[in-house]
Design brief:
Strand content: 15-25%
Shape: globular
CATH topology: Heat Shock Protein 90
Number of domains: 1
Radius of gyration: 15 Å
Distance between the termini: 25 Å
Strand order of the largest sheet: 1-4-5-3-2
CATH class: Alpha Beta
CATH superfamily: Histidine kinase-like ATPase, C-terminal domain
Number of helices: 3
Helix content: 25-40%
Length: about 150
């Protein structure tokens, strides 16, 4: 688990953000939602978008979406919002299982395929929150700095 990780039980609806279109079903759709949100904020504030920071947010959204699909039975909800100096990405899935970090090699010393998504999310995010949902499943919210 990330060092920045917090787990809490959510009652009612999430306090996170406004919906920006249909729920993504694929990582590419999650990335496009993040691009739109950041582009809207940059236009509204007439500021230049930091491309390196945007790349980090795109990677985090992609990894969260991929993990929800591979390990959580699919994306059940998705929100993105630009808040202050960062972008908050929330991805929900139907699994109660918390993300785990696996060693890069197995017990026989062979390199594992995959298993890099959660460490990437933890490294690029300033804050990561895992919230249990009242009807089962979880919501993972990551705040990625945009500066």
């Amino acid at each position: 688990m990330c060092e920045q990780h917090r787990t809490e039980f959510a009652l009612g609806t999430s306090s996170v953000v406004e919906r920006r279109g249909p729920r993504p079903r694929k990582p590419a759709e999650a990335r496009r939602a993040v691009e739109r949100a950041v582009a809207e904020r940059c236009r509204a504030t007439r500021t230049r978008c930091d491309q390196a920071a945007l790349s980090d947010a795109l990677l985090v959204a992609s990894e969260l979406a991929t993990n929800a699909i591979l390990h959580g039975g699919g994306i059940t909800d998705f929100d993105v919002d630009v808040v202050g100096p960062g972008i908050r990405v929330s991805v929900s899935d139907g699994s109660d299982e918390l993300p785990v970090v696996h060693p890069p090699v197995d017990q026989q010393g062979r390199r594992r395929v995959g298993g890099h998504g959660w460490p990437i999310v933890c490294r690029l995010s300033r804050d990561v929150q895992v919230t249990d949902l009242p009807m089962g499943g979880k919501c993972i919210t990551a705040l990625v700095p945009l500066s």
